[in-house]
Amino acid sequence: MQSASGAENRSRRLVQHECFLGDESTYSEGSSANRWKQSMKIKDILSNKRFTLSFEVFPPKRDGNLEALFDTISVLIKFKPDFISVTYGAGGSNKDLALEIGSRVKNQLQQEVLAHLTCVGATASDIAEILSAFRKEHIENILALRGDPPAGTEKFKRTEGGFAYASELVAFINSEGSFSIGAAGYPQGHIEAMSLEADIINLKRKVDAGTDFLITQFFFDNDDFYKFLDKTAQAKITIPIIPGIIPILNYKQIKRMAQLNGHELPVRLNKYMESIAEHPAEVEKYGIDYATRQAQELLNYGVRGIHFYCMNRSAPVQQILSNLSLPR
Ligand SMILES: Cc1cc2nc3c(=O)[nH]c(=O)nc-3n(C[C@H](O)[C@H](O)[C@H](O)COP(=O)(O)OP(=O)(O)OC[C@H]3O[C@@H](n4cnc5c(N)ncnc54)[C@H](O)[C@@H]3O)c2cc1C
Predict the structure, then answer these.
(1) Ligand 1 atom at shortest distance from the alpha carbon of 169
(2) Closest atom, ligand 1, to C-alpha of 186
(3) C-alpha span between 232 and 239 (Å, rounded)
(4) What is the set of domains in the chain, with CATH numbers?
(5) Are the CB atoms for 289 and 34 separated by under 8 Å?
(6) Is the whole-model pTM more than 0.85?
(7) How confident is the model over 280-302, as a mean pLDDT?
(8) What is the pLDDT of residue 113?
(9) S-S: 211 plus which of 105, 122, 183, 255, CB 3.0-4.6 Å?
């Protein structure tokens, strides 16, 4: 992690991105308390509040772990997140479970939900059906993703009658109306893109198709995020960009995830993690400490929100949040 660039760059970014501090007076506990009644879309939450907190969870692989996930969520919601995002398995393999989780979070726990949705293995009419199921459950926010190539295949292949890129999915969801739409951003560039610049040109297509906000892939060097903000601003992308933070709780797992995204951990972090890799408790302690410092630096910088990849655990995020001064 490195410090931010100069003050001039900083204020330029602050002006160019809506994701930065609005008028503080627009945020009040009152508006937060009324949120459920209003059932706000994320784009409205982002335009009304100066800072958003969000958590990402995934449908557990084993049935028995569902209640454990809800134990986690019940702890996480004590931190009053603005929304909880629920991932969507490759090819919609877990789409019923993802819907069930989203519905319980929205309708029983009365929390806004961001339901992830991918193009993998789906035709436009499959997508329309899923959107209708989300709508029935009062889920109004969708994170529109292309999805990764299914296991065993190297390249993503558009399903006949489906979509080739997230931008096409965004346009389709937009045409269905009534949803606030988020999409993924990659501070270090998407693995398939020729360069970060090329990826940002494609990102702009996704934004122009009707994306309301972006959530980033995790990163470990805040400078990557600041540079990404500069480049997106140059590309005239002005929608809110929420940085995604993941605490390293299992070094090998995160290293593998970063490599699948085409990246390595920063050299110093990697070297230190290698030195403690055989001591899981130390890895977790350092991972939490690192994520805390990373998040605090982003907060000092003035980001409008932080999205935590929780890995379906509450304690690490609880520790991180208890050490942060959130602008709420
Ligand atoms: C916050 C977040 C949440 C995620 N959640 C999930 C999830 O729940 N389930 C899941 O399976 N995956 C998830 N992913 C992973 C995601 O599906 C993969 O990273 C996938 O490989 C790309 O999806 P995308 O929506 O970014 O694709 P796109 O935006 O379509 O981009 C994919 C690639 O195509 C290029 N591209 C885009 N448009 C064009 C064009 N018009 N012409 C040429 N090239 C183009 C881009 O530069 C990029 O390299 C998530 C990722 C993030 C960051």
Answers:
(1) 30
(2) 53
(3) 10
(4) 7-250+289-322 (3.20.20.220)
(5) no
(6) yes
(7) 98
(8) 98
(9) 183
